[in-house]
Amino acid sequence: MTRESNLPQRYSVANNNWQSGANLSFNTSDGKDKLSNVAAVVLKSKIYVIHGYERDERDCRSNDAKWVDKSAVVHCFDPVKNEWEQKASTCHPHFGSSLCVVNDRLCVAGGKISCNSNGNPCGKCAPVEVYDEKNNTWSVVEQKHIPSNNLGAVEIEGRVYFIINKFPIDSGIRIPPGELYHVSLDEWKKFRRR
Q1: 52: which of 9, 37, 140, 177 fits an S-S bond (Cβ 3.0–4.6 Å)?
Q2: What are the residues whose beta carbons fall under 8 Å from the beta carbon of 29, sequence distance 6 or more?
Q3: Which top-rank group of organisms is this from (predicted)?
Q4: Identity of the highest mean pLDDT range in 55-59, 114-118, 119-123, 128-132
Q5: Smallest Cα–Cα separation from 124: which of 142, 110, 138, 108?
């Protein structure tokens, strides 16, 4: 069974305690929706949170739950207003993915497109997506220079990142504009084996 995420809390420095924040604008009370595999990042003094999302789409002829992986749900918390706002869902499902900020743009990378019955990410690697704040839309970032790999390496905005334990690490590798060939990850493969 997938573990559902707890509602967010915030720390009050003035009161020296944790307080319940505003409720998310996403209703899971009917038991047909599950949010899991949370990641968060701060962008422009707001907290963005992404949840893996599953929906029970059982056939009316059957009593067996049929959990279907859906596009990830994204919320934005404004601490000044103490309000959550649901943003556009990603283009694809994301389980165990990371949120990061690259060039003042929200990106989701790493993770998988499926979730098993224990709530663990599984299946194919999820695509890298970038958020357009002005239009409230997500788009897939084509991986032109990074070959398929098991290193967690992804290309975002001309930079190569490694996703390690759901945390994006800037490798320092830069892809020059107009580059036509794949970035060699051979040295990184040797490093990983050690």
Answers
A1: 37
A2: none
A3: Eukaryota
A4: 128-132
A5: 110
